[in-house]
Write the structure tokens for this entry.
Amino acid sequence: MDSLVKLNESLNTNIENVKKEQQRSKEKIELLAKANQSLHQQLTQQSKLNEQNLEIHSRVSREIGACKQDLFYFKNKFESKIIDYSSFKIINYWIDDCRTMGFELLYKHQRMIFQHQHFIQHAMEEAQQ
């Protein structure tokens, strides 16, 4: 009978140790879950900040592009007597809305006798250069 009592006490001690270990494991899991939740919130905030930064970067890039167009136009505006600023912006946007283009007059009919064939020949020569 003594051996059964000792066995019972030993089993009870083991059960208590297992319960304590389970409690410690449960506490560790709760701490890890809280840490995971905190990291998830930080990641969500970082993601929102990244989206905001991308939006700001996009807006700034568009503004810089518009400013470059404005500067390019104002730098050359006195050289052009055939195009105004709004037309320049539209043509530039059609060609490439990400960068400002320069335009050069290749053919002017007042200077040369305007003939269709002469125009095509002159344009082809300019394109090959």
Observations:
- The two ends are 112 Å apart (CA to CA).
- The mean pLDDT is 80.
- The chain has three helices and no strands.
